[in-house]
């Protein structure tokens, strides 16, 4: 294969399809039409003499040839991106850029109100997009230039190619409605277990880490309501007899009264993650330092 005859943009399209498993999603990420993506894939198939992807249900699955190609392609594109960034200085006051962060909604609620005011003050023309990315896909999207930073719970033995720095640690507390009788006394284990609890989880079923910890202690709390979003905590708790176990910072932010837990529990420990590629990007490193300073 003669390299000078290949449009290198075809490799960008290849990487996008591989990362997202979809021609539609690849077109959205690359800001080009679906026919343009399909045409680029057809051209690359002819160059490689391989289908590269085949449809399985709603997803495009890579062939063995595509799986062998993706590593070198990502490395080559990363080197090209880096060579274009070397020597570039990030000037927040005049920069216009979109930063993409991965975090769950509870982390958004804790982190974004603390850092966004400073981002908008220092870099008024920059934008921040926050959305959750599957943990198994974070490094892949960072290497593809589609994700800048991730904030997630600390996990020993996580992806070794991800760099990280501790961001914050917070204790869990029990929140109740204003005027709740328990606020006038010390909360003990019997009182905690007698409460009807609100549990927030993105999963349809399964125990939370507080429930797993209580199981180790040989007890079980009563979860009466299970919901997906922390946005519901304040209106549900303030108007019912429900209780919820939340990080203390979030409880203060929601303006809800709270009590210390009557048992020792693991703290919420968050790390800030980035890739080696992002570590060479002055703009991402600027945002990383700003976030670290904002949540201190």
From TrEMBL:
The keyword Transcription applies. This is LysR family transcriptional regulator. One of its GO terms (molecular function) is DNA-binding transcription factor activity. Pfam families: HTH_1 (PF00126), LysR_substrate (PF03466). The keyword Nucleotidyltransferase does not apply. Keywords: DNA-binding, Transcription, Transcription regulation. Residues 6-63 form the HTH lysR-type domain. Belongs to the LysR transcriptional regulatory family.
């Amino acid at each position: 294969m003669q390299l000078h005859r290949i449009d290198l943009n075809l490799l960008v399209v290849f990487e996008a399809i591989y990362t997202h498993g979809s021609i539609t999603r690849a077109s959205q990420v690359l800001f080009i039409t679906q026919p343009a993506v399909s045409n680029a894939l057809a051209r690359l198939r002819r160059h490689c003499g391989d289908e590269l992807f085949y449809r399985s249900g709603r997803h495009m699955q890579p062939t063995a040839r595509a799986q062998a190609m993706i590593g070198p392609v990502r490395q080559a594109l990363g080197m090209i991106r880096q060579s274009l960034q070397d020597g570039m200085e990030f000037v927040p006051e005049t920069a216009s850029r979109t930063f993409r962060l991965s975090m769950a909604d509870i982390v958004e609620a804790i982190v974004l109100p603390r850092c966004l005011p400073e981002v908008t003050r220092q870099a008024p023309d920059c934008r921040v997009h926050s959305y959750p990315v599957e943990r198994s896909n974070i490094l892949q999207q960072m290497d593809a230039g589609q994700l800048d930073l991730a904030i997630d719970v600390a996990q020993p033995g996580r992806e070794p190619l991800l760099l990280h720095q501790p961001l914050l640690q917070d204790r869990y507390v029990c929140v109740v409605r204003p005027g709740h009788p328990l606020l006038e006394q010390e909360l003990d284990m019997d009182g905690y277990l007698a409460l009807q609890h609100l549990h927030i989880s993105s999963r349809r079923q399964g125990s939370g880490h507080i429930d797993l910890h209580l199981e180790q202690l040989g007890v079980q709390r009563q979860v009466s309501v299970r919901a997906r979003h922390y946005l519901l905590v304040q209106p549900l708790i303030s108007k019912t007899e429900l209780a919820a176990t939340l990080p203390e910072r979030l409880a203060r932010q929601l303006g809800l009264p709270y009590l210390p837990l009557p048992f020792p529990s693991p703290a919420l420990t968050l790390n800030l993650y980035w890739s080696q590629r992002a570590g060479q990007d002055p703009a991402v490193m600027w945002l990383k330092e700003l976030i670290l300073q904002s949540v201190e």
